[in-house]
Amino acid sequence: MSPSILLTFLVVYFGILLAVSYFTAKGSADNSTFFVANRNAKWYMVAFGMIGTALSGVTFISVPGDVGNTPGGMTDPNNFSYFQFVLGNAIGFVIIAYVLLPLYYRMNLTSIYTYLEERLGHKSYKSGAMIFLISRTIGSAFRLYLVAIVLQRYIFDAWNVPFIVTVSVCLVLIWLYTNKGGLKTIIITDTLQTTFLLLAVILSIYFMADGLGLTVVEAFEKVKDSSYSKIFIWENLLGDTRNVWKHIIGGIFVTIAMTGLDQDLMQKNLSMKTIGEAQKNMMVFTSIFVVINLFFLAVGALLYFYADANGITLAELGKSDYLYPEIALRHLTLLPGIIFMMGLTAATFATTDSALTALTTSYCVDFLNFNKKENPNDPKLVKQRNYVHLAFSVLMLLVILLFHWINDESVVSAIFKIAGYTYGPLLGLFSFGILTKRRVNDNLVPFICVLSPILMFLLTTYVLPHTAYKIGFELIVYNGLVTYLLLLITSPGKVEGKIAGSR
Fold this sequence. Notes:
There is one protein chain. The chain is mainly alpha-helical. The chain has helices at 3-25, 31-36, 43-54, 57-66, 82-106, 114-119, 122-154, 163-178, 183-211, 216-225, 244-260, 263-269, 275-309, 314-317, 323-330, 334-366, 379-406, 409-421, 423-435, 445-463, 475-489. It is built from 21 helices and no strands. The longest helix is centred in the middle third of the chain and has 35 residues, at 275-309. The termini are far apart.
């Protein structure tokens, strides 16, 4: 497919987003609008738009590509085993809706990390907020980096455009359409981008089926009857990271930590008028999330059917992440290629714009104390927030360029994995606050939050490789448990006259 056509599509796409931003932010660009959308967002729009945020561009290309991958030491491919993790995610979302959201609404929070100050102490609060800032910056930069590589390979390399220009333009455009309206704008644009994402997945199934000479119904039958449709792996609890219990338990706690304790997705839930609307939003979002992931897996099976039928091998591509873009952009017709690019772009920028807004919100509230100001919507504070938003955009650019400069997948993946470790202390902090009535030694909390991931990293790097146990998504459970136990051991005693959960 011509890079010019793909570039034209991207220009039009961003033009639409900028137009939406202009009209949503018109006449209302204060901090209340930016942080919580004036707390009058419609639950159904938030629920729908959250799909685009939850499913990044990496998910868009990696989940389908991973269906045919064979993990180290295993003889059978992954098939649909990822759906076990998705089921765990769904359980985690229900826990968030009925345990965490009532707590956040009762305390009328803008940043969820202010809960830690109320319940545990000032240093605990700052530690939790800093963990989020570091983790989300690295995680979001990593996701955008992986997608930017695809854009570079299939579009911008044709004109020898430097990678730094590709990424810079993407971030500038994201900054432009999120800078004024913030969350209010993102709720609208993410609704639009989720629509594009869903259309891309559904139409990809149609075009893949057509490329195989099948109807959509026949394609689903072929997927269902194939070995790829195998979901549950009951065997080898210790040695297989894909075991059903590891995936489900890991999915539950990854969701609680990386969604329920993450300012990004929780910020959208806090934009609604009532807890009832927020809970309704979470349930609808969960239902769509489960179904759309099943569709992604179906796309993956069809990709491997198509690859086998047309002599495309992963060895030629280098890695499975390139399978989807390779077939969509170089083997199918023009329309499927545009549809793929639409879905990839929608998933990527829905995640990145939301992350930038959440990072700005957290920094302004948790470190600049906007919520404690007499007038949080003071024009000077709005201007300061604009500078913070720009600073995080630049910081994300620098992190992406660092990934590109390293240019070693194993090192980059390790950095991203380390960022994943840091959510463990957040899980431990919130669990301790909610499940116990004990105080923490607030001065020790920053050290515990650093020590816990280090201990887990050393364990997984130098101890577990010499055992039969292979750790998977459940890593975050152990990480949170270590943090919890360290907090318990160092606790000076119970909170007098207080209840767990809040002061």
